[in-house]
């Protein structure tokens, strides 16, 4: 049974800060099970030069609360890693996205497009026998995949599994991309997935209320997000493939949603 923690904060809770939201979100998952001094990495996928109200990137206050929670749990070092969206400068995107405040929390930031990489073998070999991935994601003691839930034209563009796609050069034809994405998840296996589904001005979050989700099972949280979007996880190719290869829970009977 996979647990998906789902919080639906109201505007009052959001205005008062994300500290309590993150505490409540992580409680059903046992918090951060860290050994003292461990290195925690928050991976954010691709960031766009868009301010928080638009709902394109993970909210800065959510990331700040995660950094604080990691240090409180005993982390010796907390880092953030991302890639700039194609055609955009990393530093410019970072500041426009509202992440400047994170620099004062002792968390270093890394542009993955300019970090050392290593070729690693896929355990599944659906489309790629190997992929070149950033070493930083493989070396963290505790890896948190922090993504922004985004949907447009009945297609999910932002979720847990899709967020990792920025970490490697995947083939772009749709029939190969879905398979390669499953290959990638056999190489990089985050310890925790946190999905920001707070509604933004661009309308990419189709559910009625703000939401924040967390799970250790990427497939379970993405299946839950598909339901929020009014879609069936089994109709989404990379989720269907991940389920076929036993990479997590995809059936409602195998997923327990708490805090909802």
What brief labels describe this structure?
260 residues; 9 helices; Rossmann fold; two-stranded antiparallel sheet; 12 strands; alpha/beta; eight-stranded mixed β-sheet
Descriptive notes:
The chain is α/β, with parallel strands linked by helices and 260 residues long. The protein has one domain: Rossmann fold, CATH 3.40.50. The chain is 29% helix and 25% strand. Strand 5 and strand 6 form a beta hairpin. Helix 7 crosses helix 9. The longest helix has 14 residues. The radius of gyration is 17 Å and the shape is globular. The two termini are 17 Å apart.
- Report the mean per-residue pLDDT as an integer: 94
Task: Identify the strand order in the major beta sheet.
Answer: 4-3-2-7-10-11-1-12
Q: How large, in whole angstroms, is the Cα Rg? A: 17 Å
Second-tier CATH architecture: 3-Layer(aba) Sandwich
Largest sheet geometry: 8 strands, mixed
Please give the alpha-carbon distance between the first and last residues: 17 Å
Quick synopsis:
29% of the residues lie in helices and 25% in strands. It is of the alpha/beta class and 260 residues long. The longest helix has 14 residues, at 174-187.
Summarize the SSE layout with pairings.
Layout: E1 2-7, H1 11-15, H2 19-26, E2 39-47, H3 60-72, E3 77-84, H4 90-96, E4 108-111, E5 117-121, E6 130-134, H5 135-139, E7 142-148, E8 150-152, E9 155-158, H6 160-163, H7 174-187, E10 192-197, E11 211-215, H8 218-228, H9 237-244, E12 255-258
Parallel strand pairs: 1-12, 2-3, 2-7, 3-4, 7-10
Antiparallel strand pairs: 1-11, 5-6, 8-9, 10-11
């Amino acid at each position: 049974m996979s647990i998906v923690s789902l919080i639906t904060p109201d505007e009052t809770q959001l205005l008062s800060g994300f500290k309590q939201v993150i505490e409540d979100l992580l409680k059903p998952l046992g918090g951060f099970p860290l050994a003292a001094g461990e290195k925690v990495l928050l991976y954010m996928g691709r960031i766009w030069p868009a301010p928080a109200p638009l709902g394109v990137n993970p909210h800065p206050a959510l990331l700040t609360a995660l950094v604080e929670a990691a240090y409180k749990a005993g982390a010796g070092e907390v880092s953030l890693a991302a890639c700039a969206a194609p055609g955009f400068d990393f530093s410019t995107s970072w500041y426009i996205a509202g992440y400047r405040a994170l620099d004062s929390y002792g968390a270093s930031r890394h542009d993955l497009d300019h970090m050392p990489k290593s070729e690693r073998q896929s355990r599944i070999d659906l489309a790629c026998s190997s992929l070149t991935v950033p070493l930083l994601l493989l070396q963290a003691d505790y890896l948190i995949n922090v993504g922004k839930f985004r949907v447009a034209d009945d297609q999910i563009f932002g979720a847990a599994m899709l967020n990792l796609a920025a970490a490697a050069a995947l083939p772009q034809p749709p029939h190969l991309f879905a398979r390669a994405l499953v290959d990638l998840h056999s190489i990089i296996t985050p310890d925790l997935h946190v999905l920001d589904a707070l509604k933004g001005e661009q309308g990419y979050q189709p559910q009625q209320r703000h939401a924040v989700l967390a799970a250790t099972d990427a497939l379970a949280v993405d299946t839950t997000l598909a339901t929020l979007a009014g879609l069936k996880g089994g109709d989404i190719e990379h989720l269907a493939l991940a389920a076929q290869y036993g990479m997590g829970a995809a059936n409602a009977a195998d997923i327990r949603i708490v805090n909802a």
